[in-house]
Amino acid sequence: MGSGLILVLGMLIAIGVFALMVHEKKEASTTKDGLHLIVERNPENEGWMYSIYARKNILVRQKIMPIVNGKQPIPNKKTAEALGALVLQKIRNEQLPVLTKSELDYVMEVSQQEDSKL
Fold first, then answer.
1. Does one domain contain both 90 and 57?
2. Consecutive sets of 10 residues in the chain, 118 residues long: mean pLDDT of each?
3. How far does CA 108 lie from the centroid of its chain?
4. Which CA distances in Å does 45 have to 48, 52, 53, 79?
5. What is the pLDDT of residue 91?
6. Could you tell me if 6 and 51 lie in one domain?
7. Cβ–Cβ contacts within 10 Å for residue 37, how many?
8. CA dist., res. 85 & res. 94, Å (int)
9. Are 21 and 77 within one domain?
10. For residues 50 and 62, is the Cβ–Cβ distance under 8 A?
Protein backbone atom coordinates (compact mmCIF):
# COMPACT_ATOMS: atom_id res chain seq x y z
CA MET A 1 0.00 0.00 0.00
CA GLY A 2 2.89 2.41 0.74
CA SER A 3 4.43 2.09 -2.72
CA GLY A 4 1.00 2.52 -4.35
CA LEU A 5 0.47 5.76 -2.45
CA ILE A 6 3.88 7.03 -3.54
CA LEU A 7 3.07 6.17 -7.16
CA VAL A 8 -0.26 8.02 -6.99
CA LEU A 9 1.38 11.06 -5.37
CA GLY A 10 4.09 11.05 -8.03
CA MET A 11 1.51 10.97 -10.79
CA LEU A 12 -0.46 13.82 -9.20
CA ILE A 13 2.70 15.93 -8.96
CA ALA A 14 3.57 15.21 -12.59
CA ILE A 15 0.05 16.16 -13.73
CA GLY A 16 0.23 19.36 -11.66
CA VAL A 17 3.59 20.36 -13.17
CA PHE A 18 2.29 19.67 -16.69
CA ALA A 19 -0.86 21.73 -16.02
CA LEU A 20 1.27 24.60 -14.73
CA MET A 21 3.48 24.53 -17.83
CA VAL A 22 0.47 24.57 -20.16
CA HIS A 23 -1.14 27.39 -18.15
CA GLU A 24 2.05 29.50 -18.26
CA LYS A 25 2.38 29.03 -22.01
CA LYS A 26 -1.23 30.12 -22.52
CA GLU A 27 -0.68 33.23 -20.39
CA ALA A 28 2.46 34.14 -22.31
CA SER A 29 0.71 33.82 -25.67
CA THR A 30 -2.49 35.63 -24.72
CA THR A 31 -1.05 39.14 -24.99
CA LYS A 32 -3.01 41.27 -27.40
CA ASP A 33 -0.24 41.42 -29.99
CA GLY A 34 1.27 37.99 -29.26
CA LEU A 35 4.58 39.50 -28.12
CA HIS A 36 6.20 38.60 -24.82
CA LEU A 37 9.51 39.02 -23.03
CA ILE A 38 11.38 36.27 -21.21
CA VAL A 39 14.36 37.05 -18.98
CA GLU A 40 16.63 34.26 -17.77
CA ARG A 41 20.18 33.43 -16.75
CA ASN A 42 22.56 33.06 -19.66
CA PRO A 43 24.00 29.54 -19.58
CA GLU A 44 27.04 30.68 -21.60
CA ASN A 45 28.34 33.19 -19.06
CA GLU A 46 27.68 34.55 -15.58
CA GLY A 47 25.11 37.05 -16.78
CA TRP A 48 21.51 37.35 -17.87
CA MET A 49 19.75 37.40 -21.23
CA TYR A 50 16.38 38.32 -22.65
CA SER A 51 14.33 36.98 -25.50
CA ILE A 52 11.36 38.55 -27.22
CA TYR A 53 8.88 36.19 -28.83
CA ALA A 54 6.08 36.71 -31.31
CA ARG A 55 3.92 33.81 -30.24
CA LYS A 56 6.40 30.90 -30.50
CA ASN A 57 8.95 32.58 -32.79
CA ILE A 58 12.02 34.34 -31.41
CA LEU A 59 12.31 37.90 -32.68
CA VAL A 60 15.21 39.01 -30.49
CA ARG A 61 17.63 37.14 -28.23
CA GLN A 62 20.17 39.34 -26.46
CA LYS A 63 22.85 37.40 -24.57
CA ILE A 64 25.39 40.18 -24.01
CA MET A 65 25.37 43.89 -23.29
CA PRO A 66 24.36 45.80 -26.42
CA ILE A 67 26.57 48.60 -27.78
CA VAL A 68 29.46 47.71 -25.44
CA ASN A 69 32.83 46.67 -26.83
CA GLY A 70 33.66 43.06 -26.14
CA LYS A 71 31.25 40.37 -25.06
CA GLN A 72 30.25 41.64 -21.63
CA PRO A 73 27.40 39.80 -19.93
CA ILE A 74 24.23 41.60 -18.89
CA PRO A 75 25.04 42.01 -15.18
CA ASN A 76 21.71 41.36 -13.47
CA LYS A 77 18.07 40.47 -13.95
CA LYS A 78 16.78 44.03 -13.51
CA THR A 79 19.04 45.32 -16.26
CA ALA A 80 18.01 42.50 -18.60
CA GLU A 81 14.33 43.20 -17.85
CA ALA A 82 14.75 46.92 -18.48
CA LEU A 83 16.68 46.43 -21.73
CA GLY A 84 14.20 43.82 -22.95
CA ALA A 85 11.21 45.98 -22.04
CA LEU A 86 12.68 48.91 -23.95
CA VAL A 87 13.30 46.80 -27.06
CA LEU A 88 9.81 45.28 -26.77
CA GLN A 89 8.32 48.77 -26.58
CA LYS A 90 10.21 49.75 -29.73
CA ILE A 91 8.87 46.70 -31.57
CA ARG A 92 5.34 47.53 -30.48
CA ASN A 93 5.86 51.10 -31.72
CA GLU A 94 7.01 49.71 -35.08
CA GLN A 95 10.56 50.96 -34.56
CA LEU A 96 13.78 49.04 -35.14
CA PRO A 97 14.68 46.94 -32.08
CA VAL A 98 18.01 48.71 -31.69
CA LEU A 99 19.17 50.53 -28.57
CA THR A 100 21.17 53.74 -28.64
CA LYS A 101 24.10 54.54 -26.38
CA SER A 102 22.00 57.09 -24.50
CA GLU A 103 19.23 54.53 -23.91
CA LEU A 104 21.76 52.02 -22.60
CA ASP A 105 23.32 54.66 -20.34
CA TYR A 106 19.89 55.54 -18.96
CA VAL A 107 19.00 51.89 -18.23
CA MET A 108 22.37 51.35 -16.53
CA GLU A 109 21.97 54.51 -14.44
CA VAL A 110 18.47 53.51 -13.28
CA SER A 111 19.64 49.95 -12.51
CA GLN A 112 22.54 51.27 -10.42
CA GLN A 113 20.22 53.64 -8.52
CA GLU A 114 17.87 50.77 -7.72
CA ASP A 115 20.77 48.60 -6.54
CA SER A 116 22.03 51.37 -4.26
CA LYS A 117 18.58 51.65 -2.63
CA LEU A 118 18.76 48.02 -1.52
1. yes
2. 57 50 43 91 94 95 94 95 96 95 92 73
3. 17
4. 8, 20, 22, 16
5. 96
6. no
7. 20
8. 14
9. no
10. yes
Residues in the chain: 118
82 and 50 within one domain: yes
Long-range contacts made by residues 62-69, C-beta under 8 angstroms, separation at least 24? 62/87, 65/104, 66/99, 66/104, 67/99, 67/100, 67/101, 67/104, 68/104
Residue range of the domain that includes 65: 33-117
Q: Domain count of the chain?
A: 2
Do residues 67 and 105 make contact, with C-beta atoms less than 8 angstroms apart? no
Q: Are 111 and 82 in contact (CB under 8 A)?
A: yes
Whether the CB-CB separation of 112 and 82 falls below 8 Å is answered with no
